[in-house]
Amino acid sequence: MKIEGWTFVLGFIFYGIVGGAYWYFSGDVVGTTLLVLTGALAFLVAFYVLYTAKRVFPRPEDRQDAEIDEADPEYGFFSPHSWWPLVVALGAAIIALGLVFAVWVIVFGVTVLMLGIIGWLFEYYRGEFAR
Question: How many helices (H) and strands (E) would you count in the chain?
Fold first, then answer.
């Protein structure tokens, strides 16, 4: 976990330097604030990860002498394929077009979007991949 922590420390340093340079050359308060807050978020993540790395036993990924079979055998469940993200994207695109053309198109887009979200949510309760 130390590598991940030091990566975020480098992000903190980078955004601090870029924020200072941006403020010096542009004088823009909003952009400077955003860059400084991005650096602050990187600092928070770096502090948490480095603090946690001290308290927990090193993972097999962090040790040079680790064997392949020491790693956790199950990283989670990953869907083999799904068409529902396409329906969700279609619904979002229809909503965007509705903002340009008419309100009834937005209503249609929200309907398609909700259908896609519900289908994606309950994908493994019905059909071929039911559990």
Answer: 4, 0
With beta carbons less than 8 A apart as the criterion, state whether 120 and 85 touch.
yes
Is residue 110 in some structural domain?
Answer: yes
User: How many structural domains are present in the chain?
Assistant: 2
pLDDT of residue 23: 95
Residue 57 DSSP symbol: P
What confidence score (pLDDT) does residue 103 get?
Answer: 93
Count CA atoms closer than 13 A to 35's CA, side-chain side: 19
Task: Tell me the CB-side half-sphere exposure of residue 84, using CA atoms within 13 A.
Answer: 16
Name the one residue in this structure whose structure tokens are 């650096």: 39
In contact, 106 and 99? CB cutoff 8 Å: yes
pLDDT band per the 50, 70, 90 thresholds, residue 129: low
Widest pairwise Cα distance in the chain:
63
Whether 51 and 92 share a structural domain? no
The Cβ-side half-sphere exposure at 21, using a 13 Å CA radius, reads 6
85-102 confidence digits (pLDDT tens): 999 999 999 999 999 999
8 and 48 in a common domain:
yes
